[in-house]
């Protein structure tokens, strides 16, 4: 493999890494923005308030409950997915 071919391969991999980084960054932004947008829309509709929803989501008992329920579900899904 010549130096020119090596350089082209490196540049191609670099472009691929930047693309993957963009996908990761965009996906992370959507993962944060979509739930917050839904909560904001529900607040605008008068169903709940944004601050009360965030207060509930940050309560220790809620976080413990979600963790206690979420970990077994994750383990079950992972077990069936690996079969």
Question: What would you note in describing this structure?
Answer:
The protein folds into 2 domains: 1-48; 49-83. It has 3 helices and no strands. It has helices spanning 3-44, 50-57, 60-81. The protein starts with a helix and ends with a helix. The mean pLDDT is 92.
Outline of this structure?
This protein has 83 residues and is mainly α. The protein has helices spanning 3-44, 50-57, 60-81. It has 3 helices and no strands.
Described by the principal axes of the CA atoms, the overall outline is elongated
Tally of separate helices: 3
List segments where confidence is low: pLDDT < 50 over at least 5 consecutive residues.
Answer: none
Counted up, domains total: 2
Features:
83 residues; mainly alpha; 0% strand; elongated
Secondary structure elements and pairings:
Layout: H1 3-44, H2 50-57, H3 60-81
């Amino acid at each position: 493999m010549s130096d020119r071919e090596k350089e082209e391969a490196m540049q191609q991999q670099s472009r691929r890494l930047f693309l993957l980084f963009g996908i990761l960054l965009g996906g992370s932004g959507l993962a944060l923005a979509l739930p917050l947008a839904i909560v904001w829309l529900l607040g605008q509709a008068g169903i709940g308030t944004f601050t009360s929803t965030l207060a509930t989501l940050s309560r220790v008992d809620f976080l413990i409950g979600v963790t206690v329920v979420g970990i077994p579900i994750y383990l079950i899904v992972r077990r069936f997915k690996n079969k």
